[in-house]
Amino acid sequence: MFIEPKTVVWIAGANGRLGRAIEHTLDHSRYTIIPTDTDVDVTDLATVTEHAETYRPEVIINCAAMAKKTDADANPDAAYKINALGARNLAIAATSAGATLVHLSTDDLFPGVIAHPLNEFDKTLPPHIYGKSKEAGERLVRELCTRHIIVRSSWVYTADEDDLIARMLKACREGKTVEVQTNQYASPTSVDTLAAFIVAALESDEFGTFHAADKGLCSRFEFAKHVCDLAGVPATTLVGRQDPAEAYRIELDNLMMRLTGVFTMPTWQDDVKQYLGVHGMLAD
Questions:
Q1: Strands 189-190 and 100-106: what pairing?
Q2: d(CA 140, CA 62)
Q3: Structure confidence at residue 115 (pLDDT)
Q4: Do 55 and 34 meet the contact criterion of CB atoms below 8 Å apart?
Q5: Exposure letters 196-215 (e unless 16+ CB within 10 A, then b)
Q6: Residue 3 pLDDT level (bands cut at 50, 70, 90)
Q7: pLDDT at residue 47, as a whole number
Q8: 137-152 pLDDT, tens per residue?
Q9: Which DSSP string do the residues of 15-30 spell out, in sequence order?
Q10: 98 Rama sector, left if φ>0, alpha if ψ -120 to 50, beta otherwise
Q11: Measuring CA to CA, which residue among 99, 216, 84 is closest to residue 137?
Q12: CB of 237 within 8 A of CB of 101?
């Protein structure tokens, strides 16, 4: 009996929240998954190409990034090294191996002052080093790897103990004050839904740049209050904070997703309810 060989998928930055979610979402009966993190330095071209030559992946997923804005602002060279040079190296390796490169990007390529939804064809204008370094990474991926999927998302959350939801719920249960911005608006998106889109795009042989954010817009405070209500945790210690210097509004329009029909994102309310239920965090 002939057994079709599995598709080899290399996930760079596999120990991060999205890398773990993608590895969990992929059908392990169909895919051989090669996860790497700091053990393979994506900023070193020789190391990256050697790894690709050894394992011959058919798909490379780049989850490696310096994602904290404060870290990027404090270390611009390091931000460009991992977010741009790392993306370049993986693009070179993907082209050499004939692989598809999935490159994870961000809504931070756009200034946070635009009052209308932003689609994949709108001009980017990143307002800080993090966004600029990710924009540079996108540009290098497009220039060096024809078979690419660039994915921009927004406010990706998990149930991890060190992430926003778990920390906030713990603090509220303990009656501690939790300050949350009331003038920052975007579209909260669960890591599980984002991973499901990425797998769907891969399995549909889609290419190009895709926005992948849940439908609808809310403030960080509205999201926090909604999560507390769903979890049955008193939100009395949630306190709104409003600093004009921190204000922004970014709404991604998933235009390419609609045009191709590859996937449909849920509303942010449906997504967070589903996500909390799967992870045992809904009120009884």
A1: unpaired
A2: 13
A3: 86
A4: yes
A5: bbbbbbbeeebbebbbbbbb
A6: low
A7: 97
A8: 999 999 999 999 999 9
A9: TSHHHHHHHHHS-TTT
A10: left
A11: 84
A12: no
CA distance 195 to 198: 5
Using H for helix, E for strand and C for coil, what is the string for 150-199? EEEECCEECCCCCCHHHHHHHHHHCCCCEEEECCEEECCEEHHHHHHHHH
Position 217, amino acid: L
Length of the chain: 284
CA distance 1 to 265: 39
Q: How far apart are the first and last CA of the chain?
A: 49
Strands 184-186 and 218-219: antiparallel
Cα gap 157→178, rounded to integer Å: 17
Six-digit token pair at 29? 């009966």
Q: Which residue has the tokens 């310096």?
A: 66
- State residue 105's pLDDT score: 98
Q: How many other C-beta atoms can be found within 10 angstroms of the C-beta atom of residue 278?
A: 12
What does each C-alpha distance from 201 to 102, 129, 149, 153 come to in angstroms?
Answer: 10, 29, 8, 14
Tokens representing residue 83 in the block: 């977010």
Structure tokens at 194: 């984002």
**Encoded tokens for 68:** 């904290």
CA–CA distance, 250 with 186 (Å, rounded to integer): 5
Contacts 24+ apart (CB under 8 A), 29-37: 30/6, 31/6, 31/7, 32/6, 32/7, 32/8, 33/9, 34/8, 34/9, 34/10, 35/11, 36/10, 36/11, 36/12, 37/12, 37/13, 37/64
